[in-house]
Design goal:
Number of strands: 4
Radius of gyration: 12 Å
Low-confidence stretches: none
Largest sheet: 4 strands, antiparallel
Mean pLDDT: 92
Strand content: 35-45%
Shape: globular
Order of helices and strands: HEEEE
Strand order of the largest sheet: 1-2-3-4
Distance between the termini: 22 Å
Number of helices: 1
Length: 66
């Protein structure tokens, strides 16, 4: 499972905006995206200025979502 999660995170390098927006960050006000890797959800934000993707959280899908 860890390998699947790491591969999904590495895959965000190409076209990270293809996954659905899940809301906005409270601290920065930037868009937070969500990628589902069953049974987990990877929440991340894209920093266009530095061309980087920041992983914010990995949650189990059965937990209450933020």
């Amino acid at each position: 499972m860890i390998e699947r999660l790491l591969n999904a995170i590495d895959d965000l390098e190409s076209m990270p905006a293809r996954f659905r927006p899940a809301g906005r960050s409270r601290k920065r006000g930037s868009t937070v995206h969500a990628r589902v890797v069953r049974p987990f959800i990877i929440y991340y934000r894209i920093d266009e200025r530095s061309a980087a993707v920041f992983i914010l959280e990995i949650r189990h899908g059965a937990r209450r979502q933020p």
